[in-house]
Amino acid sequence: MAEDDDQRTEDPTGKRLTEAREQGQLAISREASTWVLFIGIIIVVAGLAPTMAVRLVNTLRVFLEMPQAISLDGNGLQALLAGTLKQVGLATVVVFAVLFASAVLGTMLQTGFFASLESIHPQFNRISPATGLKRLFSSNAIVDLLKSFGKLVVLGGVVFLTLWPVMLSLPASGGHDLMDIVAYLHHEAVHLIIMVVVAFTLIAILDLIYQRHQYIKGLRMTKAEVKDEFKQQEGDPVIKARLRNIRVEKARKRMMAQVPKADVVITNPTHYAVALQYDGGSMAAPVVLAKGVNLIAERIRELADEHKIPLVSNPPLARALYETVELDQEIPTQHYRAVAEVISFVYKLKKKKF
């Protein structure tokens, strides 16, 4: 297994990452999710709790301060209980809604919108005691234990360092006004919350980076796997090269079949050959039917000889036409004069009127 891990040196491809995501394998930091939930708790405690507490107190005040005003008939008591239950239920629903939204948001911020049925399929191998013991004493479990211990030490240290000065100053605050003491404790409580949030934020960021690293590391591939995937996506290079050669050969045969229709073949005289066709009644300019270099040029010249097509040696024009004009395209205007002279010469040889 260690040797196999040593061979996994390549970063996962996009296809590998997509397949892992479809199977429910995602880099999720529990610390980051807990951090979002912790922020949700702070919102509930600091923002919503005071308002909800005031409403509940106002609702319950009749029970505490004016119990004699409670109507004991069916409708009065029923309305009072319904109003009380409504306020309690509303407060409970709001709290749970915020906490639920925080829990969902903590995951969605890391994974985006995601749903996979693969992750909820039953995995009976997890029921095995041997598998459970192996998972319990695995390296990942040990790392999680060390992370939890480290988190406890960091947060405990932050709380201790924040509260220690407060504890030292409490004996000296005995002679101060009660409201001043309450304001001081409130200030220190806010300071403690801020320090804990900052510490937890750093822990969440570090754990998120670690989880992403472990996720990528777990999906690394061997060079052979990368090559196999490339072959699956792009096709076997050998087969692709063979198919490309077949297409080139077919195109070459089609091109050679056009050579007998040419009026002239302009040559280098040995390295280049360009076959031109011109019909003054239907063409605005001569068209390149075939072109080639070396062996292909030699084959074009052989076909031209077989079909009594004139060969005209003009190295600059042959190279220019080969490099600038594609098959079945008319020659550009800058070559009109040179090609016109060639075709005029050929027509004179054939005793045709140009």
Description of the molecule:
Strand 1 (264-267) and strand 2 (272-277) form a beta hairpin. Helices cover 67% and strands 6% of the residues. Among the domains are: 26-116, no CATH class; 256-349, name from scop (3-Layer(aba) Sandwich), CATH 3.40.1690.10. It is mostly helical. It has a 4-stranded mixed β-sheet, with helices on both faces. It contains 12 helices and 4 strands.
Map the helices and strands.
Blueprint: H1 2-7, H2 14-22, H3 30-64, H4 74-111, H5 129-136, H6 139-169, H7 178-218, H8 223-234, H9 237-258, E1 264-267, E2 272-277, E3 287-293, H10 295-306, E4 311-313, H11 315-324, H12 336-349
Parallel strand pairs: 1-4
Antiparallel strand pairs: 1-2, 2-3
Helix pairs in contact: 3-4, 3-7, 6-7
Strands, total number: 4
Q: What's the helix count? A: 12
The residue ranges in which pLDDT falls below 50 over 5 or more consecutive positions are none
Name of the CATH homologous superfamily of the domain at 256-349: secretion proteins EscU
Helical amount:
55-70%
Distance between the termini: 81 Å
Q: What is the CATH fold-level name of the domain at 256-349? A: name from scop
Q: What characteristic shape results from the CA principal axes?
A: elongated
Strand content: 5-15%
CATH class of the domain at 256-349: Alpha Beta
Mean pLDDT: 77
Order of helices and strands: HHHHHHHHHEEEHEHH
Q: Main sheet?
A: 4 strands, mixed
